[in-house]
Amino acid sequence: MLGALLEQVVCGLEKIPEEITQEFVEQKKVIGGRSLRLDQIVKLLVAVTSLKPTFVCIDAMDECAIRDRAKILTSLSKIIQKSPTTRVFLTGRQHIRGEVETRLPGEVVAVSVSPWKDDIIHFIRKRLEEDPKPRRGGRKAGVGNCKEDSRNCLGDVCRVACLERPALSYSLIYIRPDFYQRL
Amino acid sequence: MLVLKYLWWLSHTNTGCSNKRGFGFTNSGCDDDWTVVQQGYPIVMRLAFLWFPANTRTSTADSLLYHVPRSESRMSQDLNFFTTTSRNSSSSNYTNSLNAGRSFNNTNCFNNSTTNNVSNHFTVTEDRSEILAWLSPLEPRLRHQNLEAGRVDKVGDSLLQTEQFRSWLDRNSQGDNQNATIFCHGQSGGWKDVYLVGDTAPKRRNADKDFVSNKFPLQFSSSRYPM
Fold this sequence. Notes:
The complex is a heterodimer of chains A (183) and B (227). By secondary structure, chain A is mainly alpha-helical.
């Protein structure tokens, strides 16, 4: 995964840095070629992220295997320490927060993320607008005639659906039969 | 024709007029012209014969020896020049492409941007893609693009307005590691990935000075891919 990070950082540069080309030549000399080791990837990531301020965003850290997660966090720690312009954006479940705060240097900003009510309302409205088979009154309801009390109702209805499946496919949105009557 | 007339007149005056009967002809009068012509003809022909080689030497031979060969030689020279040039250029292309092909053995050549051949471009591009593929065969940007395409506008913008996010984004990056990391935690299905994709919103809207002025390459990866 860190190799994929390195590839993306390099992809954003106009020229491939000399360190990487040298490493590529060295690794090519081995019969059949050889991929980079973790320490080499970290070293190159430090070299590359020092060129430009870089944001590293990693989603679902909690879904990593524990051993891999430790390696990743340790590598990120090295990168942050040696390249101060690099910032890291991580997401994951609550139970790995302690591990993240322990392994990464400095103070880690923790934000509890849950679907904001406004986001849910906006999302439902948008999907209703795009619904190819709108129910009776559906368009009128989705466009913006909601009152404050009906917004709450809308948020509750959709929260259930969104927690069931994180995918934002509107075919998975569960809408109560009395949804439009509440609006 | 003027030259022939002049030669005829010359032979006529030299032979016919001055010593008309001196040539052994007994006829006189009306035969003079014929005699002169007959006597003058070989002279004219001789002169003409002499003239033609001279003419040949000057014009035809010149054209044959100089003009044509010269033009041929020029053509050949040009051709040689062209071929050598093209050969040189092709060889230079070839060597350049070879150099570019070997450029990874010679990093100075690789970083030299003076190579402007198309073949070099292709070579460099191919080598660039080869290096990128060597760095990682994974393509997490596809997932990023899918999430971004499925994301509804303005969803996730609430995170950008939080104090924690602003403190992380506006962190003074002068060597300290404070607030270098932000960790967004939540339950499963809590739209964390959507908020992460929504993090690119300032870049798209050009609302954030840091993203725009410094052109931060916002990188993304997902641990959901095989390690």
